[in-house]
Amino acid sequence: EKVVCHHIGVDTSVFGGGLDTEPADERDPAHVLFVGRLAEVKGVGDLLEAAAIARSTTPSLTLTVVGDGPLRDQLHARATQLELPVQFIDSATQLEVAALMASATLLCAPSKATASGQREAFGLVLAEAQASGLPVVAYRSGGTGEALTHEVGGLLVPEGDVVALATALTELLTHPTRRAALGAAGREEAHRRFDLAAQSAQLGEMYRAVIARHANAADDDNNATGPSA
Known about the structure:
- The chain is of the alpha/beta class.
- 45% of the residues lie in helices and 12% in strands.
- The protein is elongated.
């Protein structure tokens, strides 16, 4: 009963507020974005395999992968083998990421458990994408279900199921009306649940409540024992 789950906030003045967001029907209709570390837990290899499958029905699909990490060379090589049109960007500022989110078609976040059992804790990028009105396709793994509500801001598919991931990508890439609806719903939910100013204020109230409770308990103890001799 002492545990409270408080989610991290997103700066909605940057994601979904500080930049002009392209209308759904004016965005590149098949531009998939990934933002994160190029490590096993992020599942970027699954994204490449799913994108190769999805291109059979959406040949105009392109990928932008933002991030660096230990799997960088391996992922570059696999993208070449699959003949995927991928732009790899080693690093980007917050504003540059926000600009990509304002123009991409959807974000894919296929985080999954590693061989050692590591899982995604929350997935801040999912909240940032939704705040930007960008629908998300992700594995249901670790804390992703806390950051993304299925059929609200995007689609969650079974962890490690590359075919299901490809199907979800194809579904949103080929249905602009549904994609726009999910983007709008996700933006509303992200601004309601993850706005940085609101979350920071709520966290401050939690601290104040704990401090007050302990101060009152200390006063009660002093009153019960009375002054010391």
